[in-house]
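PT: before anyone asks, these are the final sequences, not the draft ones from last week. 730 residues across everything. Please model them as a single complex and drop the result in this thread when it's through.
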Amino acid sequence: MKFISNQRNLTNKINIAQRAINVKSTNELLRGLKISAKDGGLIISAYDAEISIMTSVEADVQREGEIVVNSKLFGDIIRKLPDSFVEVETDDSMNIHIKCLSSNFTIKGMDASRFPQLPKADEDSNIYTLDNISLKNMIRQTSFAVSQDPTKSILMGELFEVDGNKMTLTAIDGYRFAVKSSDIENSPENIRSIIPGKTLNEINSLLEEDGNVELRFSEKNAFFRINDTLISARLIDGEFIDYKKLLPREHTTRIRVNRRELLSSVERAALLFMSDKNNLIKLSIEPGALTIRSNSDIGNVHEVVDIELDGNNLDIAFNSRYIIDGIKHIEDEEIYIDFTTNVNPCVIKSIDKDEYTYLLLPVRS
Amino acid sequence: MKFISNQRNLTNKINIAQRAINVKSTNELLRGLKISAKDGGLIISAYDAEISIMTSVEADVQREGEIVVNSKLFGDIIRKLPDSFVEVETDDSMNIHIKCLSSNFTIKGMDASRFPQLPKADEDSNIYTLDNISLKNMIRQTSFAVSQDPTKSILMGELFEVDGNKMTLTAIDGYRFAVKSSDIENSPENIRSIIPGKTLNEINSLLEEDGNVELRFSEKNAFFRINDTLISARLIDGEFIDYKKLLPREHTTRIRVNRRELLSSVERAALLFMSDKNNLIKLSIEPGALTIRSNSDIGNVHEVVDIELDGNNLDIAFNSRYIIDGIKHIEDEEIYIDFTTNVNPCVIKSIDKDEYTYLLLPVRS
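LR: through. Structure below.
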């Protein structure tokens, strides 16, 4: 294998592929990038059990071939080279020679034939198209609510649904859930799959603000095409909770409140908790005023926030961390919070749009 | 005690005082800020064994008094309050009531009379004045070479000298040393003190680009006045190494080299070392060219850098980390490196100025 490529392009694409590398993998091959040089350019591939990334780089390929190289070492070297042309050549002993201006590296490569086969989408499968920013928002506004509990493997993923012209992501961790929808243009078929939260976060980091992403699904994988990068996400087997059943049908108390003011007040009330446990804050809802109280060994706080109340007065308690998460991930200036009783979940949503819902269980105080 | 102050001013000054807080201190009082309200304003003080900070805040003091409050909790609360006026009041049970718009906190205070006395400068002691940027550079260009070895307590400090019109900071860790001087206007008396490196780094972070700093010395402490903040640094007892004796009197090889090119080449050569040990790079100096080589289990590299050579050819080896440190902390575009033999130290310095010297011991390869 021998090729010449541009240092900057190569660096960018290595950065992309490295998102699929699990540096803690005990399998040396899986800490590697596979580089395939074919007439017309390079394909850089990376793979771990949950995610694979394949991206292409322009290059002048002088001899075709492929090799696997330690991702960190190769990435660090290419990144540190001057912004110029880089020549990469392998020899019969699987050494990789890297030249750039007056820099010359020789590092060990690994046998590319031992690198795992990456999952591939069926050429005939349906394509769903979505703009990057919508997918970014869907991931950003839900993925924080993915469960971190490895005994609940299904809840470590998000439910990815296509239903008619609506694409929806849902994350649940047992105490709260976050749902975000976007309209899509083409919806050849309904979909219901579970994608690992960690993979969605990697995809989010690869999405620029502009452009579109193309999605395909197979039985075992979801595929995301972002420009010339193809990502596969291994789906989680199992049946996701029917979250729609958890949504209260009605509310008896609705408040309308400035989101930033509420967020600041709850964040201040949470300051009295030095640890993650027992972050209990109490809300008292009356016409015109929401009073937030919290108590701990180190002091107490009460905060008053202006609200518009529609419905009954209510006293209810929440874990401050979970209520902060919900308020933080809405963008609107004002939000609604709907309640029924102090043992039923509340629902946080935006004023105008029906696209985002955050449901939160209260704490019995 | 009762006062009203501005949230933003108070936050800024808490941020300053917190630099002297050791959050790991087992003494609750030393994790606290002492707030003294007197006619005209507040004094916020913080103290640990090595450093104390005292800073003043404008406030409308309605009842004089003083209290100690947990630094983290008080800082977090004030920082999160809205940008408005904050009322702070203590009661007879040493509770502290904090009010700001519709936020109300009550937290526990501690008895201020138990707070340690801060070191004070003798009113008659000499004052040395230096511009902030010079002191910042002196600290930045030397403190990285302070020893981290607690068994060498003297070398965990920097030698602070005033000799005639020259102020000099020197750090040595046994393998290399860094010396930086600045001219000062007034030099009432020569000084030779050892200031902990950690304290100097805190002082650096408090220095803005503009303005001047005033220094005083007592037997046990150095005092730095930066605007309305007074910092005391406990001096380290003992005799600092006579670094001037270590400086080679002459050189038989001098190279002139572009600093950034050399830095990049050495950084690349260092990439082959995954751990901190044995980071050996070999330099071969010939007319016009410096060749850098390194070898490790994972590969080898050679780099060529253009130089101007004055003197003899030389082969010499260094720990790459130490040579990188030295080159990184000079600002000049081109530098000199002076050598004698491959078992004697080399000296890195700027082309124009005589103010900075970095001495580095070679490794026998």
